[in-house]
Amino acid sequence: MATIVLDDSGAPKRQGSSVFARMGQRTERIVLGTAFIAVLFIAWQLVTALGVEPPILLPSPADVVEAFRTLFSSSDIWADLAASGKELLYGFALAAAVGIVAGLAIGWYPRLGYFFDPFVNFLYAIPRVALGPLLVVWLGIGLNSKVALVFLIAVFPVLVNTSSGVRSLDQHLIRVARCFGASDLKIFRTIALPGSVPFILGGLRLAIGQALIGVFVAELLGAQHGVGAMIENAGQQFQTDVVFAGLLIFATAGMVLTAIVRWLERRFDAWRV
User: Fold this and answer.
1) Mean pLDDT over residues 175-196, rounded?
2) Which sign, positive or negative, has the C-alpha torsion 93, 81, 211, 135?
C-alpha cells in the first residue's frame, strides 16, 4: 500500500525523481511563472517580426524597451511616478485601514452589520468609477479627489473579505471560550482576529488591482502628472510603445505589491483555518 507523505502545508508531497518533484512549491511557482513570461515575450516578438500587426497597433518588445529608455532619460517620468505613487500609497493605505476596522466591527457586531449592510451593498453595487466627476466637483482636481477615488474603489474588497472572515468563525469554539469565562475582548483578540487574518490578506490582494484601476481612472479625469495621464497623452498621439511602457509600469507595481502581500500570507499561514 502506497504511503502518502504530507508537506508542511498538509498537501500530499510529490514523490519521484522528476524535476518538479525535486524542487519546492515556491521554486516551482517561480520557474513556471518565469517560463510563461518568456514564452509570452517570444510570441510577442515573433508576431511583430513577421509583420502580423503594424507597429502602430502592436509595437515590438525592442520598441517598448526603447520607449522605457527614452522615458527614464527625461525628468518628467519621475514626476509622473511620484504623482501616481502618492495617489496609490495614500488611497490604498486609507482603504486598508478603514476596510479592516469597519469589516471587523461589522462582522463582530451583527446588529451593526444589519444597520450598515444596505449602505455597503448599495455602494458596492454601483460603478464607483462613475463617482469620479462628482469627487472632482466636491474636492477639486488635485490630489484629494484622486485619493478619494482610489479609496472608494479599493476599500470594499478589504471590508467585505474582513467581515466575511469574522462571520465564518467557528461558533462552537467561541461558545467553548465563553464557557471558560473568556471576555469578549479576549475572544476577539485570540480567536476572531487570528481567524480573520487570512481573509484580510486576501482582501488586500484583491484591493491592489482595484487601487491601480482607481489611479488610472483618477488621472484620466484631469492630471498634470501621473502614469495614467502619460498613457492617455501617448494614446492620443498614437505612441503605442509609450502606452505599453506605461502599462508595464502599472503591472510591475501590482506584482511588487502582490508579492509583499503573499509574503505576509506566508508569515501568517499558521493562522489559516
Assistant:
1) 82
2) positive
